[in-house]
Amino acid sequence: MKLAMINDDIMPLEKAQISAHDRCVYFGDGVYEAVRCHEGKLFAMDRHMARLENSLRQMDMLEKVDMEQIRHRVNRALRVSLIHNSMVYFQISRGQALRSHDYSEDWKPNFLLTIRKFSSQHRAVHAITHPDWRWKRCDIKSLNLLANVMAKHAATQAGAYEAILVDDDGWVTEATSSSVLIVKNRMLKTAPLSANILPGITRALLLEWADAIGLVVQEKSFTVADALAADELMITGTGTEVMGITHLDGKKIADGTAGTYTMRFQEKLTEAMSKGI
Ligand code: PLP
User: Fold this and answer.
1) Domain containing residue 267
2) Which of 27, 47, 90, 176 could form a disulfide bond with 152, CB atoms 3.0-4.6 angstroms apart?
3) What is the pTM of this model?
């Protein structure tokens, strides 16, 4: 059953309602995670919890949040949902108060979770490039996703699946809800971790697996021209898994199909999801 949970209360997804005065409504003041449940098991939950903890710390929210309680709520909701393959989304906002930019020190966190059925999507897609209009702390998984929403819609309007974001200096940062990597001459290249990108969990796994499939990792920024000249261009993420970008702004990448390494990484990910980490 698809469901929602607000703090400790579980309800049908459609019945979930939060206060109009929740700070996530006015300011997007909160953080979130999205975790895959594969064959009844949460995938890479410890890594998601570590990233959540860091986002909360960066937002000065951590001291009000009980991380064990979050884990307990997620597990409880999962047991009730009985969905074997799902996307578990949860967010923590800085509570509710009448609209005012600053918050009082006695704020209380609000937890919202949804669980919906999820299955793997297409494996080879088109992408566009789009200016990276986001803020300067993209390492925090905050609820503020306006620039991501705008770029994703531009992709949809162009008949593409994803928008690859390019900063003011011409470097590819990441995509609207995925990390971006290229393969060139057996080198796996992706932007280094910084405040300009989210530390993607799938990205990290690929970097750990690269050696086993014969690739050398280079965490170095690359340009759109590098992406166009790549042997393979791919995006990765919890919902994305590993997708090959076959066309960028309508231009073919290599032979215009998902590459061998891209498919190998997808196999590794499927294996890891089945085994669980
Ligand atoms: N980059 C952005 C901006 C994202 O929103 C996401 C996922 O939501 C990712 C990268 C991929 O991260 P992960 O592999 O942890 O899902």
Assistant:
1) 124-275
2) 176
3) 0.98
